[in-house]
Hints:
Bound molecules: S-adenosylmethionine
Strand content: 15-25%
Shape: elongated
Structural class: alpha/beta
Amino acid sequence: MELMFPLLAILTVGLLCILVLLLKLYRQGKWQLHHLEKLRPPPLLLQQQAEGRAYLHGLLQWEENMLPPLGGWAASADMLIVLAETMLANRPQRIVEFGSGVTTLVLLRCIELNRTGHLTSFDNDAQFAGVVERRAARLGYSHRVDVVALKDADPLGWPGRWYDHPPFQPGIDLIVIDGPPVLNHEQTRGGAESTFAALSPGGVILLDDANRWGERAIADRWRREHPGIRFDYLDVEKGLLIGHKVDAQ
Ligand SMILES: C[S@@+](CC[C@H](N)C(=O)[O-])C[C@H]1O[C@@H](n2cnc3c(N)ncnc32)[C@H](O)[C@@H]1O
């Protein structure tokens, strides 16, 4: 009988500990589910993305399974629609893009549809550039992505890092900026300014992810320092800054 009391006490404490542990696990699971629910895009956005993807394939006169998944690291469907519409309407001859990927595939398809134009693509990641080249080859395009390192401190005074590309001859008709990744610095894409002098009169600049704080600061400074380029903001999923060179600078 004397032994029964401590035994019962130990048993009760043990059971209580197990109960607390189970409660904790249950709460954690519930939080994780809640968290996942928050990460999932709302139904309307999912519907818009699906419609955007279908519309884009229509514009490109492609079946719907030609492009890999859009959004995330890749450009979103609504940005790619503007990119394709710009390509098909303006029929640019010289196109330069920074940050290869789905944008590259759309640009190559538009060049094919236009039967004119030449694309130069830059990426700092050799492995990713290889993936893009293989995806382009699968679609029938033999396209080389130029792999260049990122260099520190641009001469124009932008923070972060920009592509160490060769100097450009004047006559670029379209500049597409979708890199480097923001991990380098939130204003890392400001360095694209070094290419503006080579933009043709009437040429166009597209800066993706323009609804981020870094890109907003970049847009403010570009507007101040380049009055000869009109910059408009388009409220697509990730924001798009569109620059039109209105006169020779
Ligand atoms: C915003 S992404 C460029 C996206 C590209 N224009 C597209 O539409 O697919 C910028 C850079 O991030 C790198 N990148 C692309 N996808 C990635 C991924 N899933 N994980 C890590 N880096 C990635 C590549 O070097 C790419 O040039």
